[in-house]
UniProtKB/TrEMBL annotation:
Gene3D superfamilies noted in UniProt: Tetratricopeptide repeat domain (1.25.40.10)
Keywords: Membrane, Transmembrane, Transmembrane helix
Descriptive protein name: B box-type domain-containing protein
InterPro entries reported for this sequence: TPR-like_helical_dom_sf
Transmembrane spans: 84-101, 107-128, 154-175, 181-204, 229-253, 265-288
Signal peptide: none
Amino acid sequence: MSDSALPHCQFHPSAAAGWFCPACKANLCPGCTVLELQESSNTELLSCGRCGGAAEVLKVHRSQAPFGKRLLGAWLYPLRPSGLFALVAVGAVVAFSRWVFQYAPLLPGLVALAAWLGSFWGSLFWIVRSTSMGAQHFTAPDFQSIHDDLVDPAIRGVVATALIWVPGALFLWHFDETHRPLPLFGLMVLVTLLYAPMALLFAATGESKLSLLNPIKVVGISVKLGRPYLMVVAWMVPLALVHALVMMVAAWVSSLPIPLMAPLVAEAISLFAPFVMARLIGLLLYAYGDRVGYGVDSEFYEPALPGVKPRGKKRAAKVPAPQQRETHRPELQRFTEIEPASAPAAQPAPRQRFIELEPEPAPVAAPEPLEARLVRAVEANALDEALALYRQLPERLPPLPAACHLAMGQKAATVGDYTLAVRALKQVAQHSPEDPLAPKSCVILARLYGERLGDAASAQKLYRHVVGRYPGTDAARFAQSRLPPA
């Protein structure tokens, strides 16, 4: 996040602020914030370097970061090692499925068609969902069943884009190559650019299949997203040009006389633009999803200065200067000054009666408990260090603040460790149900079950629990939107 998009320190206007003092009502930079260790509980406390009052971490909305810079980074997403691996893996499945579909009988051909379309759309939906939850790299999805991971994504992808490919097919069927009206063709391309991103967003986020065919609802959501959605649409123009160029390269590679490898590489190359488009849509949800009810509102606020630690020093208390004794003026001195008495002669040191022993070594301090180090790392927003410490905890977790379990659950989900994420989030739901963070933990746990683990039944059960246990909260409203209509 650029410094210009961040709030600035009240006492150092050129420095970005990462903390807030409720007593001073002032934003604080790292130099104005004090981080001190409380020895009694081995926890770190934040305080204002000006007034000494307790300070809080300043959080800003994700949309404060330049969205154009986020979108620019999406072009590199498929070129990272994990992205290249995904291109090759999905390309191999698509190439083999297409080959089987072309030469196999009807029933095996339909299975191959489902594998072809399901692997293509399923990978795009996965990129959208994982990006919307903060994943920086492609993580392999957990395969649950043929229906959930192949058939359903294929149906959702085809239905969501039906308003694009059906008019296109009718256009090609009705007009021959010499009589195709260019204005109508240009209008169809424009509608495709405007509608395709939102159709992919709808299909990836679990909307009902019937709503995928409702253009009014789709357009309404795009209007709520506003300018950021238009920025994504604008990126579709160069992406379409790059895709056309990439498809020419893929066609040339496919024509090479290299069995197996040529089709595989061609399919992998052709997936570059779809992967970038899915990443763009995921970034749109990551930064602005709260505008359309995707996620809990509090999820979209993050520390203004992640990873930065306060370096301010506590002000020393002012000690009053000693008062000088009143001196008599020489002209008023009534007595003659007396010569100072000589100092008494120093007495000889007493004879040592015993042999002096070596001083005892200072006691070695006991190592800091693992839980205290974990709490301090979470409070300092050093989440990578905190996650490494959390993994070292025993199966029966010791008592920890709900904020620690929640932070570790979110971090573990981001890096793809869903088992640990579920374990951490369950701690909040089971042992701290009255904590203000419990509703949010339940919603994130439900999203993990439904969107990443393919356990729709557990997700629905958790959503109903949130609606009934925490009515009126942001979490309950989001959970209600994820439940089917009664």
